Amino acid sequence: MLLTGCTTTVSGTATPLAGAPPTTSEPPAPTTPAEPPVDVTPAPEPSVGTLLEAHRIASVTSLVQATFPARTDTCFPSGPWSDSAALDAAYFGSGTAGPVLDRWGFVTAWGQCNSDPADGAGTLTMVAELSDPESARRAAAELAADQAGGYEAAEIPGIDGEVLLQEGGGEDVVQAFVPVGRMLAYAYHSTAPGQGLDEAGRLMADQVGLLEGFTPTPQDQVPSLPTDPDGLQQVTLDPPGEFTEFSGPYDLEGYLRLAIDPARERDLLRANGFRGFYSKQSAEGDLSYAVALYAFPSSAETNAVYTAFAELEEAEFGGTRFTLPSVPDAPCFWFESGDGYYQRCYVGYGSHLASVDVLGLGASADVAAMDRLLPAQRDLIDG
């Protein structure tokens, strides 16, 4: 979806038969009183506005690498989720988590996923926006109660929420559901035996700290969130195909949830007066595309970041340089990706820096798509 001004998808457990008489003359045990009803604020319909709110939530979703620097590989699921059923399928697969979220006023969510390339151990973080603080608390309790597979209730000092621990098979697996205001923070973390609760505690402490400074958009204002707050949409090239939900504006911290090396890129962009970022990502046939536009105060800062990004791609990220016939001076790199290749090229002018990615190529030397796209992006920013 292109973000414009227009809006464009267990086994059960047996329970006693209701009303069965007691089997002894002893009085039945007292039951726990039902919790009082909650006046759930209606959520806005999924739209451009809910995607924009998800991009805001990205800024306060814990970066896995900040707590576990070795977990550098990005993985699925990640990104924005305005559909509770899709979020359920990606994170829980139960078919019951989506209705729980909807019952408590689900608005939208953002998730991160990272794993350790050495052993594959992974961590998921996800933050969902719900109706109100009581709804977030009840959703946390219901989602935790819905988990199966040998989890036992546990506690993490200083974390006020639902924590589950599964031990065995040579690892600890922790799930945590922590309400912070009307936001619900979730984490799934696998690690070495005996370390799960301590590590999950550090992760959730970081997550809670981020959310304590966040103000969610009132539900009735979500549809009118600004689609282009930094005025970058019109100078960001439209790549071929259907736009994905990653497309749209991000602030600095939100952008870092898309970055390869968040810590290093945060320092670089802050030092050069970062003023805004806009992303357009799409897919068409076997190819995927990503266009990223950064704004800075002047050409001096643009050039500094242009040079630094080129050095990172080659020296740190393992890119192989190639020359693009249409823009021979552009820093261009190709990378292996699964069974194929992807290319990234940079172009800058004035206060704007852009990168263009083409993914899913069958050969590293196939520059046909990039040879069309990079000159078109250059022309947009050089006016």
From TrEMBL:
Renumbered residue ranges of the record's region Disordered: 1-40
Protein name per the record: DUF7373 domain-containing protein
Species of the source: Geodermatophilus obscurus
Low complexity bias: start-end ranges: 1-23
Lineage, broadest ranks: Bacteria, Bacillati, Actinomycetota, Actinomycetes, Geodermatophilales
Record-linked InterPro entries: DUF7373 (IPR055797)
Biased amino acid composition, Pro residues: 24-36
Pfam families from the UniProt entry: DUF7373
Coiled-coil residue spans: none
Residues of the DUF7373 domain: 42-226
